[in-house]
Amino acid sequence: MAVDKELYERYKQMKAQGQSITLAELKEQLEKERNMSGPEPEQNTLPQNISSVSSVISSSFVPKLVTQENTVSYGGHTDNSASELKKFALIGYPLGHSLSEFIHNAGFKSIGIDAKYDILETRPDQLVDRIKYLKTNGYSGFNVTIPLKLPVAMFVDEIDVSADVAHAINTVKIDFETKMLKGYNTDASGFKNAIPKDITLCGKTAGILGTGGAARAAITALAHSQVKEFKIYTRNVANSIEFLEYLRKTFPAIEFNAYQIDRIRDLSDVNILVNATPIGMSGSAVGYTPVEERELTTLPPDAIVYDVIYNPKKTLLLKLAQKHNYRTINGLDMLIHQAVEAERIWTGHTPDFKDMKIAALEEL
């Protein structure tokens, strides 16, 4: 049974009545009831795996891993010891808002791997020591979040095409034998797979708020969706010149232009507006928006507002967009889709998307 609105609404009602139950337990209970009363058609709200949501952005974009039944591949070494604890982690700063531990633990459980996922707050000045720690303490891989998605590239031995195109790394695999690091980017495929299938972006104009790792992933995904033009809003246009030149060389058929983010006045030609900044995230930035309401309402009536932030589920930007009847997408499904890809890179197996989303919803 899919993780649909009916399931989640029933979960919230039971919680409000003081009943102690998790989403996973409720899901299992409802499945038993349905099995007793006969099968129910599967809803398509959430796919069972990443491949059923959308085709891969390109054949070369997602790393190709050799998968063998009942074995786990780690950098050419086939590990048949299912009981051996595998160690993974998330590095970045700050990480108080992170749901990654719950999401990944659910994913590992769904594929039968005994694994531990650590949350390791790491400031930029601690990155050298953190990389040494991960390599020498038995970790098989790690995720990378702000502000380390760009500087971590200096420490990897090999970069996958996904990270090369996006110019940012969010997933690193540590070779079982050599301890060499390979960097990937699963944010771009995660971003694209979270867009509902009925949305067509070919020939449209995208507005991107920010130029960091999340922005680069969004641009990569939308470029492969054949967006015709990008308007990139940044705090410093002059500092973005090199980035713009790279984008123009990488995607020569697409137009790229940069603008000051604090001078947004007219968004009337933007079909999808993406917030790829931390503005609105739980913590010091919650309750703020990168675009004020007056400017936001200059978007065309059928525009989409996509906020890559997942905590809170509904940022002030999304609340304002919904107030004015714009279609919105939050960052939760992107987070889970990129986590699915990360685990597939690390283990060679595809974890269950639904179980990972349940784990995330229980913690929000």
What does the model show?
With 364 residues, this protein is an alpha/beta fold. It has three domains: 5-37, no CATH class; 56-188 and 334-363, Rossmann fold (3-Layer(aba) Sandwich); 196-330, Rossmann fold. The protein has helices at residues 5-16, 23-37, 50-53, 100-110, 127-136, 161-166, 187-193, 213-224, 241-250, 293-296, 316-323, 332-347, 353-363, and strands spanning 72-74, 77-79, 86-92, 115-121, 139-144, 158-159, 171-174, 181-184, 205-209, 229-234, 255-260, 272-275, 304-307, 327-329. Strands 4-3-5-7-8-6 form a six-stranded mixed sheet, with helices on both faces. Strands 11-10-9-12-13-14 form a six-stranded parallel sheet, with helices on both faces. Strand 9, helix 8 and strand 10 (229-234) form a beta-alpha-beta unit. The longest helix is centred in the C-terminal third of the chain and has 16 residues, at 332-347. The two termini are 21 Å apart. Mean pLDDT is 84; it is low at 39-82.
Strand order of the largest sheet: 4-3-5-7-8-6
The total strand number stands at 14
What is the mean predicted local confidence, pLDDT? 84
User: Could you spell the SSE succession in H and E letters?
Assistant: HHHEEEHEHEEHEEHEHEHEEHEHEHH
Helix content: 25-40%
**C-alpha Rg (nearest Å):** 21 Å
Structural class: alpha/beta
Distance between the termini: 21 Å
Q: Which fold name corresponds to the CATH topology of the largest domain?
A: Rossmann fold
CATH architecture assignment of the largest domain: 3-Layer(aba) Sandwich
Q: Tell the overall outline.
A: globular
Helix count?
13
CATH class division of the largest domain: Alpha Beta
Estimated share of beta-strand residues: 15-25%
Poorly predicted regions are: 39-82
Q: Give the count of structural domains.
A: 3
Major sheet: size, sense and barrel closure?
6 strands, mixed
Can you identify the CATH superfamily of the largest domain? Leucine Dehydrogenase, chain A, domain 1
